[in-house]
Structure formats: C-alpha cells, structure tokens
Amino acid sequence: MTKENNKKQGKLIVFSAPSGSGKTTIVRHLLGYDDLNLEFSISATSREKRGTEEHGKDYYFLSLKEFKNHIKNDDFLEWEEVYRDNFYGTLKSEVERIWALGKHVIFDIDVSGGLRIKRKFPEQTLAIFVKPPSIDELKIRLKKRKTETEDKINMRVAKASAELATAPLFDVIVVNDNLEKALKETHDLVKDFVNS
C-alpha cells in the first residue's frame, strides 16, 4: 500500500453484516455485472474448510501458525479473531493484486474488518451494512443453511445483536427483507460510487 500505487488504486466496496443476512448472495450478484468492474477480495482465515469451499477461491485457508506469522509481518490490511483461534483477515497483497488488474475491490467481511478498511481509506471506500429484517429471521436463515450446530448458530445470533448496533457507522444500511429490492438497491449504490 505504497504512495506510488495511488495512481492505479481503484475503489473499495465493503459489505458487512451479521452471518445469514444475505451479504454473500448480494456480493455474488454484483460480481456478475461487467460494468461495475469488480473483483472479489478473498479473505484469509485460520478456520477449517466447510463443505465445497476451495483454497484461493472462497478463502485463503492458513494454519493458525501461518496466520499469526502474517500478523507479525504486518501483511494484513485488517484482521480479527472472530471466535477463539478463528482468525479472518484481508492480506494487503490481495488488494494490490486486484488494483493491479485495474479493478475495484469488493469485500464480504465482518463488521469490524469493514469499519477498519473504511477508516484506512475513507474517501475510496463505500461501506454497506446489510441488515436482516429481524434477529428471528436471521436464526431461521442460519438453521436453513444446515452447516452449523445449534451452539454455533446461537453464538452467531448473539454476535449479530452486537453487530447490528454498529450499523449506523456504515455509509449505507440496506435492509434485506426483499432480496430483489436489496439487489437493485446495492447495484445502484455501487454503480454510482464507482462512477463518481
């Protein structure tokens, strides 16, 4: 993230939300629009792969030791210990890779990571918070995924309450109570931002 990179730096579009709010669905949808010129920022994590996830596509899966070495070497733009020994972060090299392609970076990251990026690049970042219609609806969506235990779901729901309190710190709050409406709203927001 050096000064001489400024000429070729694109914009940063951050999507954050409690787990189950639909942010990943929205981000995947936006990546389908060529006119937005977006490239997905692949986060690094120390957690185990889930289901059909692939290294270098869904996440960069690192061992706990590798992740901690990257922290020591100041290789992250932002990082967070989301749950005990479950680290997530954005490698600086990932953002530089995307900017080198002449594209804008789109993030699907947790609330604190999203706010850290906004603080580091206030003018270049559009931070969007995707809000579920309610905590009850969030719990239903998490159960439908069938990817986690009841304990994990309860942990995520508890965390969601704290995350919802940070929504006003974002540039925009999009309530995902109607997916089609949320997709159109986010497309318009991102299009205006990348063209500004």
The count of DSSP E runs of length 2 or more, i.e. the number of strands, is 9
Counting DSSP H or I runs of 4 or more residues, the number of helices is 7
Poorly predicted regions are 2-7
Please name the CATH topology: Rossmann fold
Give the averaged pLDDT, no decimals.
91
**Major sheet:** 5 strands, parallel
Q: End-to-end span in angstroms?
A: 22 Å
Listing every helix as H and every strand as E from the N terminus to the C terminus, the arrangement reads EHEEEHEEHEHEHHEH
Assembly of the depicted chains: single chain
If strands are numbered along the chain, what order do they take across the biggest sheet? Answer: 2-7-1-8-9
Describe this structure in words.
The protein has helices spanning 23-31, 64-72, 92-100, 111-120, 135-145, 150-164, 179-194, and strands at 12-16, 38-40, 44-45, 60-61, 76-83, 86-91, 104-108, 125-131, 172-175. It has 196 residues and is of the alpha/beta class. The protein has one domain (6-194): P-loop containing nucleotide triphosphate hydrolases (Rossmann fold). The strands form two sheets. It has a five-stranded parallel beta sheet with strand order 2-7-1-8-9, with helices on both faces. A four-stranded mixed beta sheet has the order 4-3-6-5, with helices on both faces. α5 (135-145) packs antiparallel against α6 (150-164). The model is unreliable at 2-7 (pLDDT under 50).
